[in-house]
Structures are given as C-alpha cells and as structure tokens.
Amino acid sequence: GLLGRDMRGRTVGVLGTGKIGEAFTRIAHGFGMKLLGWDVAENPACVELGMEYVDKERLFAEADLISLHVPLLPSTHHI
C-alpha cells in the first residue's frame, strides 16, 4: 500500500506570504508543521499561526519543504 511521510513536526519554508501563501500556511499549520516565512512584509495572520519570519538563507537551510508563492519579477527570478 501507499505510505506517506508524517508532516507533523517537519519544517516548511514559505516564500511569499500574501493571500496564496497565507492559505498554504493555514494548511501547513493544520498538519502541525513548524512555519518559517520570507516576504518583503510580514503577514499578521501568518504570525498569529506561529510563523517565524527569517532570511532566505536560513529558510533554505532549515526547511524540510519549501513552498514558493511569489510573482515572477527580476528580483525573484532564479530564487
């Protein structure tokens, strides 16, 4: 049969915490994941869920899973 990995306790890095990133964060929170975020501005709703905002380098180093929710701009190209 199919056996997946338990996501509880794993760390997810969310790049971009606007409306879509916030929706993803709510789902990850429901799975009991540790939440790391990066964005130009902190989303208070994500902070209320326990998200810790960190720099990209720390997010990439510590996250077990990375979810990307940023627009394609010159500053985000090749993140």
Question: How would you sum up this structure in a few lines?
Answer:
With 79 residues, the chain is α/β, with parallel strands linked by helices. Helix content is 30%, strand content 20%.
**Average of pLDDT:** 95
Number of helices: 3
- Whole-Å distance between the termini? 36 Å
Shape: globular
What is the CATH superfamily classification?
NAD(P)-binding Rossmann-like Domain
In the CATH scheme, the class would be: Alpha Beta
What CATH architecture label applies? 3-Layer(aba) Sandwich
Radius of gyration: 13 Å
How many domains is the backbone divided into? 1
Could you characterize what this model shows?
It is a single chain. The chain has 79 residues and is an alpha/beta fold. Helix content is 30%, strand content 20%. The protein is built from three helices and four strands; from the N terminus they run βαβαβαβ. Strand 1, helix 1 and strand 2 form a beta-alpha-beta unit. The longest helix is centred in the N-terminal third of the chain and has 12 residues, at 19-30. The radius of gyration is 13 Å and the shape is globular. 24% of the residues are buried.
Name some characteristics of this structure:
3 helices; 79 residues; 4 strands; alpha/beta; Rossmann fold; four-stranded parallel beta sheet
